[in-house]
Automatic annotation (TrEMBL):
PANTHER family on file: TRANSMEMBRANE PROTEIN 256 (PTHR43461)
Protein name: DUF423 domain-containing protein
Transmembrane annotation, as ranges: 5-25, 37-61, 68-91, 97-121
Domain of life: Bacteria
Organism field: Herbaspirillum rhizosphaerae
Compartment list: Membrane
Residues forming coiled coils: none
Length: 124
């Protein structure tokens, strides 16, 4: 994934995360119970943190190279879609089996961060 695409996707994800956080705090507070609202907020936090991670990866590409870091940014984006996406749907729908795919997104986050460390280690 290129620096430009990472920044675009990171910016879009930050926009969505801020909007989802505000929506959860104001629009869903009266609709969801405390457990589902906590799930919603977890999705927002992880989306926001990993969108910032994607910005960081884009900034690191000139220093450590695009090969490994492109994969790191892709893994973070996939993690956002699967992890946060499944939690958003779970909170809104109450369909519990969606929680079974959430850890796949978590593994994508872990892979992304490991790839960041690997890229820095491999750089001379």
């Amino acid at each position: 994934m290129s620096e430009r695409l990472l920044v675009i996707l990171a910016g879009i994800n930050m926009f969505i995360a801020v909007g989802a956080g505000a929506f959860g705090a104001h629009g869903l507070k009266q609709i969801l119970d405390a457990d589902m609202l906590a799930i919603w907020q977890t999705a927002v936090i992880y989306q926001m943190v990993h969108a910032l991670g994607m910005f960081a990866v884009a900034l690191l590409i000139p220093k450590f190279g695009p090969a490994i870091l492109g994969w790191a940014g892709s893994a973070m984006f996939i993690g956002i879609v699967i992890f946060s996406g499944s939690l958003y749907v779970l909170a809104l729908s109450g369909v519990r089996f969606l929680g079974a795919i959430t850890p796949i997104g978590g593994l994508a986050f872990l892979a992304g961060w490991l790839l960041v460390a690997w890229a820095a280690y491999k750089a001379q």
